[in-house]
Amino acid sequence: MSFRFAGLAAVAALAGACQPASEPATEIAASEPALTIERIYASPSLSGATPRSLTFSPDGSRVTFLRAKADDASVLDLWAMDIDGGEPYLLVDSQVLAPDERALTEAERQLRERARISSTGIVRYDWDTQGEAILVPLDGDVFYVSVESGEARRLMETPEYETDARISPRGNFVSFIREQNLYVIDLESGEETAITSEGGGLVSWGVAEFVAQEELSRRTGYWWSPDEQYIALARVDESPVENIQRMEIAADGSARVVDQRYPRAGTDNATVELFIAERETGARRPVELAATDDIYLARVNWASDSATAYVQVLNRMQDQITILAADPTTGAASPWLVETTDIWINLTNDFRALADDTVLWTSEDMPGGFRHIQHRAADGSLISQVTSGDWVVGSINAVDLEDGLVYFTGWIETPLERHVYSVPLDGSAAPTRITAGHGRWSARFGRDAATFIGTYSDPQTPARTALYSVDGTPIRWIEENALVEGHPYFPYLDDHITPEYGTLTAADGSELHYQIFLPADFDPDRQYPAIQYLYGGPHSQQVHRGWQSMRAQMFAQRGYVYFTLDNRGAANRGREFEGHIRHRMGSVEVEDQLVGLDYLKSLDFVDADRVGIWGWSYGGYMTLMATLQAPDAWAAGVAGAPVTDWTLYDTAYTERYMGHPDANFGGYEQSSVFAHLDNYETPLLLIHGMADDNVIFANSVRLYSELQQQRADFEMMTYPGQRHGVRGEDRSVHLWTMIVDYFDRKLKEGE
User: Fold this and answer.
1) Rounded Cα–Cα distance for residues 451 and 441 (Å)
2) 648: which residues sit within 8 A by CB, 6+ positions away?
3) For the chain, which end, N or C, has fewer CB atoms within 10 Å of the first or last residue's CB respectively?
């Protein structure tokens, strides 16, 4: 096998030396690539067997994970592997439990859309604390599966669809949401109890509201105390939220008007309250979150002894986070920690209440806004600054109190690689890297922090997962996923293209990272069309040394240079780097992408007149803003599911970065696509799902109308029944065949 690779600096020098004095070399059309669009979206996945939701059993004797069926990559089953040896084995077959899985309800579809879950079958599971059983939500109900016997007990069989089911901390109960109320089943007696009964209509209990799910990464609305005596739960009243009527046109041609409570920027949010309920009596006590209802309930965590509920509250503009310490017996709460910023607060799941009543917490309240680990006392005072420096902690993975060590993932050496590190809890020494290679790692530690499940990938290595000792020594494979004969990608290895990485400099001196894929059969004497892919928005990193999307291979193997640059605002560079876009989205991002374009066009092997640009979601917005602000820069663009006017997008996301529309009217105006539409010149293909409940279809409909009023020439494609992403093999093939054909027509005509 071989990986096609050329050092870009050497190639550029060679291209300059060999450049003819007169006309550029004649292009020869690239041969039809072996890697077809149809194969990219067929089963099995070209990335190979990629286990998901990996975790240790409570006793540490086995690892469990979700794996796609070999003949259908969209359907997941539950697998296991014994730590002591033996091959992985199927633990729960989704099609045995539910041969004819019923259609998802609207609530469940929305939950999965928010979590970006496109698979079916078993999409989540939950171990009991004894390691004897696993909870499997499936078919709208919940199954309790004995690990030893494999016997599955269906806990309920109701016409209603149960969601957010999980096992209580000590394994005695199963809780779930049914018709906007929280229920608990006693596993010993089988008795079902309604913790709440007032939910219905615009009021729900134990459910995360839309913006909490979509923008705060909080997809639950209830939290058990470790001793199972209390449940903290949210009450959500959506009546203040604006009702948007949107038309959903389904794949069968039917249409319906959907009433969606969608809080657009500057409008009212849902009212969210927090209560603490006693499980045995049902008594509920309110927790006062703030002096105003105009806040976001961000996270809830419990102390290990269940004596305190720690509640994270964001103000409306998200530049202050308050952690409250609440007494579950009274509901009384007082500030435990308050952090403020002149940029915005980035939430994490790093709050860890330890057995000794102290707390680990990661904070960006550091020079440069780099996230680091802090050890705090029970009263919130700082015990030690565990990590520091001009790099970012990704997440806390485990804590070993006996040896005084913290394990975490982070980006220390370079923002392109993510590794696992250990560091003394008292901060007395620098972190020690425990993972090898030059790629991206994720880790899941066992309870004793003696072993971890590690997954690694790099541009030449699809994700491979193994069990490791705490010092990084491999113990055994869970999924080697080796690129050998029999691997789905093996037939395409000889054509695989590895990217080159580099940096450019923004106008303010910031360092910008890029990656570039050279075309198949690269010849430095030729000139090639190029595609510039971008996302551009916050909380995203596109340039990294992990296994890359097949889209890059798809374009490069069709004779394109494929280029990506992370502009200011991208993730994993610190909050100050992100904060460049504050109150002015669609400005510095475009400036930086133009720096990338200038570099791309400076390469002798790139035809400067044949460079296209594309992106989806924020990347679709960026495609529009870039081509409108630099109308002669790109030859063609593709914008998928774009925001076109930030007043049409939701409160929590938009106001975090843009502020309130009333306080930043000029910023909103200039960040709108419509402020620049008179510059429309670059040919565009516009794409949107007609049932999109995130970037609602109205964004594109208004753009279509305005362009038609201008008599502008553009192309468009809509997808009936599709939401923010286009799902399914057939539609995906259709989408990408269309996009490739569009760029071929615009960038390769006359070859």
Assistant:
1) 15
2) 264, 265, 696, 698, 699, 702
3) N
Main-chain dihedrals φ then ψ at residue 511, nearest 5 degrees: -85, 130
Lowest mean pLDDT among 18-32, 286-300, 634-648: 18-32
Helix/strand/coil for 751: coil
Write phi, then psi, for 97 (nearest 5 degrees).
-65, -40
**493 secondary structure, DSSP code:** G
Instruction: Out of 168, 204, 617, 700, pick the active-site residue.
Output: 617
Which residues partner with 502 through β-bridges? 514
Q: Residue 573: phi, psi to the nearest 5?
A: -125, 5
Half-sphere exposure in the Cβ direction for 464 (13 Å, CA): 17
Residue 26 pLDDT class (50, 70, 90 cuts): very low
DSSP of 177-206: EETTEEEEEETTT--EEES----BTTEEES
Q: By CB neighbour count within 10 A (0-12 exposed, 13-18 middle, 19+ buried), where does 656 fall?
A: buried
Look up residue 590 and give its amino acid.
V
d(CA 751, CA 736): 21
Burial label, 690 (beta-carbon count in 10 A; 0-12, 13-18, 19+): buried
pLDDT digits (tens, 9 = 90+) for 270-325: 999 999 999 999 899 999 999 999 999 999 999 999 999 999 999 999 999 999 99
Is pLDDT of 254 > 80? no
Q: The dihedral of CA 684, 500, 570, 606: what is its sign?
A: negative
Residues β-bridged to residue 264: 650
Compute CA distances 532 → 266, 464, 519, 720, whole Å: 33, 29, 14, 28
- The percent of residues above 70 in pLDDT, for the chain, comes to 93
**Does the CA dihedral 173-174-176-178 come out positive or negative?**
negative
**Cis status of the peptide bond prior to 44, with omega within 30 of 0:** yes
Counted residue by residue, the chain has a size of 751
Q: How far is CA 283 from the centre of its chain?
A: 37
Tokens of 729: 């093999």
What's the CA gap between 262 and 281, in Å, rounded?
36
DSSP 678: G
186 is catalytic: no
Q: Are strands 606-616 and 528-533 parallel, antiparallel or unpaired?
A: parallel
> Is residue 71 among the annotated active site residues?
no
Please give the mean pLDDT across all residues of the chain: 91
Q: Is the dihedral of CA 503, 506, 512, 516 positive or negative?
A: negative
Question: How far is Cα 475 from Cα 479, in angstroms, rounded to an integer?
Answer: 12
Compute the average pLDDT of residues 234-256: 82
- Does the annotation mark 692 as catalytic? yes
- Helix, strand counts (H, E) of the chain: 13, 44
* Interval 246-262 mean pLDDT: 75
Q: Please, are residues 533 and 29 in contact by the beta-carbon 8 Å criterion?
A: no
The C-alpha atoms of residue 363 and residue 208 are separated, in whole angstroms, by 24
To the question of domain 8-42+488-747 being in CATH 3.40.50.150, the answer is: no
Instruction: Retrieve residue 517's tokens.
Output: 């894929």
DSSP-derived 3-state class of residue 237 = strand
Mean pLDDT of 552-566: 97
Tokens 């293909």 label which residue? Answer: 685
The DSSP symbol for 357 reads: S
In the numeric block, the tokens 């520091």 are attached to: 388
Q: Within a 10 A sphere around the Cβ of 733, how many other Cβ atoms?
A: 17
**SS3 state of residue 566:** coil
Tokens of 484: 């050998």
The identity of residue 89, as a single letter, is Y
From the candidates 164, 592, 692, 693, give the one annotated as an active-site residue.
Answer: 692
Model confidence, pTM: 0.91
Strand 309-315: give its sheet, edge to edge.
295-302, 309-315, 320-326, 333-340
Contacts of 333-336 with C-beta under 8 Å, sequence gap 24+, read: 333/287, 333/288, 333/289, 336/310, 336/379, 336/380
